[in-house]
Design goal:
five-stranded parallel beta sheet, 665 residues, alpha/beta
Length: 665
Amino acid sequence: MSSSTPVGPGRARDPIWSPRPVDVDQSRITQFSEFLSSRTGSTYPDYGDLWRYSVDHIGEFWAAVWDFFDIVFEGERGLSLGASEMPGAEWFPGTRLNYAEHALRHAGAGPAIVAISENGSTETTSWDELRLQVASVARWLRDHGVQQGDRVVGYLPNGQPAVVAFLATASLGALWSTCGQDYGAAGAAARFAQLAPVVLFAADGYTWNGETHDRSDETAALRELLPTLEATVHVPVLGTSEVPTDSHQWDTILSEEAPLEFTRVAFDAPLWVLYSSGTTGVPKGIVHGHGGVVLDHHKLLGLHHDLGPGDRFFWYTTTNWMMWNMVVSGLMVGATIVLYDGSPAHPGPQRLWDIAADHDVAVLGVSPGYLLGCAKAGLEPGRDRDLSTLRMLGSTGAPLPEASYLWVRDHVRADVQVASVSGGTDVVSGFAGSAPNTPVWAGELSAPLLGVAMEAWDGRGESVVGEVGELVVTKPMPSMPVFFWSDPDGSRYHDAYFDTFAGVWRHGDWVTVTERGSVTISGRSDATLNRQGVRLGSADIYQVVEDMPEIDDAMVIGSELDDGGYWMPLFVVLADGAELDDDLRGRINGAIRTHASPRHVPDDIIQVPAIPRTRTGKKVEIPVKRIVQGADLNRIVGSDTVDDVEALRYFARFRGGAKSAADRR
């Protein structure tokens, strides 16, 4: 176990990191506070004061964000918030704008994109080059009949062509959607076919863990599954495949120059379609609008991450995940975005630190699992690399355990701010996180984000502090979905977020808002461990168990069984050389009893070969629970929605609960 002792939410202690006054004074969030003071006549001496204004005067706050970042638009800007009910809030009616126009406002010979391949090759694209490339692709799209509202899709890895194709699509007011090539044709079609796309951009393949994966056959199969396609663009990433005779060539399109133009569209006009994980059915198409994304991402990246011209922004992601969309938005605030196409652990777990050091990254984003792996590998990034430009280390995708905060402090740099962020594809943004003027407590998110009226509610719909409750948002956010695809009456959208508390967004996470205003995440509320009426989030178990050197990975579920019983097993993946003997079981149970909850000591501890996750790295607790309860795997999850379908299929041997586990381990 770690030498540190976990501290429960709300317990008095000192921050692990506090901002230096000089850095606060020079931050953009301080400039915004002063800008706001000049408008309101009030002062906002700390983050809490600014946040309270942002949610008490939500329309005025977003109008100030609009003006502070000088949003480019046409039309009459009257009320910032027309209708305010949820769902159905109406933001900045009468305005027209375009996301791509904001992403390409900057010009010059400086770098806009640094794209790195797993083999180490690097391509740098200047602002001027990026503008020319987007203009060329947009012209080609127009020439092939693509208009506002049409759908364009990308079957592409995380490289420069994906960004260019997206921005060109957005510049026309057409909708963009993408997924990585680790999805097979069926998985990609489960998403894209819903949209009836007219153009497909497809790479010939990608590289992962030192191996190349030719996707020519999958692309051909995907085209057959998308009968509405009118054109396909072949993007040479590997350069080893024969170009289909009926495909258009990427390099040829880029060679024909054109003027850069933008179609300004209504504030809530669709920009892109993202997807739910697909682990509980057909992936839902979640549609976000131009205006909401432009506003929210300026706020999140410009104020909370303090990104601006000259900064390098690198968040490890694939095109499957909303963080890809967030990284592209770094262009809007003038940052240079760093893209990496490959495994984060090839040729070793130090890879992301190498990129951060080699490219002078200011804000680096990783997953909690990556940090845990670095700690277990004994890495010393701060000692072995020049990370002097790194000032913020972001983390999202799962709750970040306290031990990882301490590891960053001790093994990266004590003055690097750990910015754990909680949000989701649903809002393509965050609910809680950090800012340049917020302290950081280990294991906690510093505060709700500006403009996010986030609270924890109990089952009676009352706000609670210092205890676990449902994460709710009581006032609209501009980046909430404008609608779900193929949901004409809005019923699926309503049922996803508003069927529990009328007019209030329920996100589905268990959170605690502490007495000091920080936030802890306990896991998905639909995966809650309810033992003897006491609820606990799975993240509280993982924080304890995954800190043990013998445990590489873990999953806990609470399963209601047909006989009325309740079975709570802990599944573990052991580190090399470890053995799940009585001694280790006893130490695991003791650690959970002491540091998490004495009522949530597992009924069984079972070794498994792997823990299945979604393509974006989230443990698939609900599908595992449903399999244990007897559901047919093929009816609850598609093989392309998880990273290792065989790992998921393994859990079928535990149908029936404890007796089955004892008989079939």
